[in-house]
Amino acid sequence: MPSTDIAEALQQHGYAVVRGFLGDGDIPDSLLRFLEGAEKFHDGVIGDLPAADMQRIQARIAATVPAVAAAMGLAIAVDRFGYCAIRIRESHAAPSLRLPFDQHRDPKAAPGGALNWHLDHFSYFLHGDHRNYLICYMPVRKPDAGLANVAIVADDVVARLDPQLHQRIQGRGALRFRCVEADTLDWFRLRFPGEALAIGDWYAIEDLYDASPGWKIGFDLEAHKVVPHLAVGDLLIMRADVIHRTHDAGCDRISVRCDALPAQAPRLDTLRGLLGITLRYPFMSRKRRYNIRLWLRQQWRKRLGRTA
Asked: What are the pLDDT digits (tens) for 102-136?
């Protein structure tokens, strides 16, 4: 698929699918063994992927993504990408309530490592720019292309159904999107005191700015989602400001994720970059501090050679 076609799809819809992006030889068995047993961070991400096993995947990305970004007019760091992996375990259980309710935490926990509707949090907390940012998902272990996929609300659909929402999420992250349900109504009352709430209403949950709990949005995300079926080796590439979620945990799935970072993104893998974000930490919003505190602590432990 030519880079110009990928760029056009990203600009119009916010996402594109490239079939067969990775070949059989690009996913070594040693990488799969590592990902099966690797420890996950508290947000479900596997970091520090083995460099030798990632060489061919990295080469595919380097040969494709910079040209796509250039065609879109994005300012990305063409010489560095962020890599991690996401592992989902098969589960057919229903989401469970988190009681007692805490307005700062989701009212429900999804099974299997699935994530509900959102714009990514950590990448926005750390870099603050989702306009010059692309996210690439590549399944490397997945027995059924019809299961454990990513659901998306296309950018042009959001623009048509809720222009105000579309405007507010341009370049944004650190947002969740939730529907008021009978068993979560009390949680919404905690989060939005005095609001006239009704079951079936949808809200954007603001996770960056302390002064705002969020706002009501104008349509049902579930009724307007698209779910591309991804097989092993396919590439799903998205703009970082496109609303998405894990569609289901219907089978085990491991995906490698690559983040094309903004050109001005700080080098958080260096001592200077880590010191910089540490010095800024006291001046961040309370919500942002709450969400990156464990990450920051982990990075300093790694830097100082300490165990968790």
From this structure: 998 999 998 888 999 999 999 999 999 999 999 99
Confidence band (pLDDT; 50, 70, 90) for 307? low
Rounded to an integer, what is the distance from CA 128 to the centroid of its chain?
A: 14
Same domain, 308 and 172: no
Residues 151 and 300 both lie in one domain: no
Residue 1 tokens read as 């698929």
Q: Where are the alpha helices (DSSP H) in the chain?
A: 3-13, 29-37, 51-72, 122-127, 155-161, 163-169, 185-191, 271-280, 286-304
pLDDT grade for 42, boundaries at 50, 70 and 90: low
Q: How far is CA 52 from CA 21, 31, 78, 171, in A?
A: 19, 9, 20, 33
For residue 22, give every residue at least 6 positions away whose Cβ sits within 8 Å of its Cβ, in sequence order, or none. 56, 57, 60, 138, 140, 232, 233, 234, 235
Q: Which residue, 216, 203, 226, is CA-closest to 156?
A: 226
Q: Are residues 157 and 242 in the same domain?
A: yes
How many residues are given for the chain? 308
Q: Tell me how far apart the alpha carbons of residues 164 and 158 are, in angstroms, rounded to a whole number.
A: 9
pTM: 0.94
Same domain, 300 and 180: no
